[in-house]
Amino acid sequence: MLVTKQSPISGKLNSMELPITEAQLEAHRNGELVQNVFPTLSVEEREFLVSGISPKEWNDLFGNME
Asked: Under a CB-based contact definition with an 8 Å cutoff, are residues 20 and 41 in contact?
């Protein structure tokens, strides 16, 4: 599923193709914790769902935090 969110940092629309369902996305929108609804997604993918910040934008802002 293609998910598009606006970054609060740049205001840019970021899109990411994620292996999720509409039902999962709706559960998250209704307050379920992202890590519970999407346990198979990476940290970067879950961050994107929460904040709209893409992995590239995160890395550009904060560097590689590994």
From this structure: yes
**Angle formed by the axes of helices 43-51 and 55-62, nearest 10°:** 90
CA distances from 26 to 17, 33, 46, 57 (A): 16, 12, 14, 25
Q: Tell me how many domains the chain contains.
A: 1
Quote the Cα angle for 43-47-50, to 5°.
140
**Residue 1 structure tokens:** 């599923």
Q: What is the pLDDT of residues 10-66, one digit of tens each?
A: 899 999 999 999 999 999 999 999 999 999 999 999 999 999 999 999 888 888 755
